[in-house]
């Protein structure tokens, strides 16, 4: 449900990162979202489009790259991909796990078309 | 087509303000906890029990987060603790900025312990650092023993698990041992308290721990 608040944060980041005249040219906002980030990608895309609608960002869409969760066992140093939230090492069973990735929630790139740039 | 590479965390602004909140709280020697749970698990009841038990020995400030109404702030005010109510008007979680504003309304130099009661929700508040020393998650026996597995992010991000409503165990389908094990599978470092805000069982242990934390920094 907090996808709407997160989509609002994304819009602000885009507005701060792209020169004002080029905002209408934004086509794609690329994101990295970890499996454990607590965000539903479909819902986030929907919220972003809803907020962008009727603004200079209308037509821009989110492209979400989902990052799998990966852990490293502190006991046996085994690296593994985590299925769901199974915080135990598949090799030795230890629960002392360091989370290596999977909680990302980042804007990575913004793609702009050559069109729709406003005259300054 | 041109590309701008930016690499920015979406919640960076929240995290920056949370860091400022944390520095401010540390500066004043205040131990702050962020209590999270589903609606009805017993956040406000635990707060009332805690104020009853510790209110005379420890200066406790309270920040209440709710979607609507100041019912909780009224409940807490009966115990003569300074309380600031945040009404989110539909927002499903507290953010660091809301807590920053609330902190400006509390007499921090007199406060030793700050209890932030988040909006009742086991999903969204997990993502938002408020500047607290630790998150305390409450799960109640009426919710069943599988909840840690269903809401792992919250359990993973918390330092303390409180299992509330243990007086109802004979009447509900909840295996306390399974609940503990499920929680520890997600977060082996969790410290667990088991209590009942209705009967008062286990409240003394929880308050003794909290008192120690709140007193250490004075």
Commentary on this structure:
The complex is a heterodimer of chains A (120) and B (218). By secondary structure, chain A is an alpha+beta fold. Helices cover 22% and strands 30% of the residues of chain A. Chain A has one domain: hypothetical protein PF0899 fold (2-Layer Sandwich). A three-stranded mixed sheet of chain A has the order 2-1-6, covered by helices on one side. Chain A has a three-stranded antiparallel sheet with strand order 4-3-5, with no helix packed on it. Chain A starts with a helix and ends in an 8-residue tail after the last strand. By secondary structure, chain B is an alpha/beta fold. Chain B has a single domain, classed as 3-Layer(aba) Sandwich (Rossmann fold), CATH 3.40.50.300. In chain B, β3, α3 and β4 form a beta-alpha-beta unit. Chain B is globular. At the A-B interface, α1 and β6 of A face β1, α6 and α7 of B. β6 of chain A pairs antiparallel with β1 of chain B, so a sheet runs across the interface.
Task: Give the structure's gist in a few sentences.
The complex is a heterodimer of chains A (120) and B (218). Chain A has 2 helices and 6 strands. Chain A is α+β, with helices and mostly antiparallel strands and 120 residues long.
List keywords for this structure.
A: 120 residues; alpha+beta; hypothetical protein PF0899 fold; 3-stranded mixed β-sheet; 3-stranded antiparallel β-sheet; 2 helices; B: 218 residues; alpha/beta; 7-stranded parallel β-sheet; 8 helices; 36% helix
Largest interchain contact: A-B, 33 and 32 residues
Form type of chain B: globular
> In percent, how much strand structure appears in the residues of chain A?
25-35%
Spatial arrangement of strands, main beta sheet of chain B = 4-3-5-2-6-7-8
Examine the coordinates and then state which fold CATH places here, giving the name of the CATH topology of chain A. Answer: hypothetical protein PF0899 fold
The biggest beta sheet of chain A reads:
3 strands, mixed
Q: Give the termini separation of chain B.
A: 59 Å
| Average of the residue pLDDT scores of chain B | 95
Please provide the ordered H/E string of secondary-structure elements of chain B: EHEHEHEHEEHHEHEH
In the CATH hierarchy, what is the architecture of chain B at level 2?
A: 3-Layer(aba) Sandwich
**DSSP helix count of chain A?**
2
Number of domains of chain A: 1
Which oligomeric form is depicted?
heterodimer
How many strands, which pairing sense, and closed or not: the largest β-sheet of chain B? 7 strands, parallel
Query: What is the β-strand count of chain B?
Result: 8
End-to-end Cα distance of chain A: 38 Å
Give the CATH class of chain B: Alpha Beta
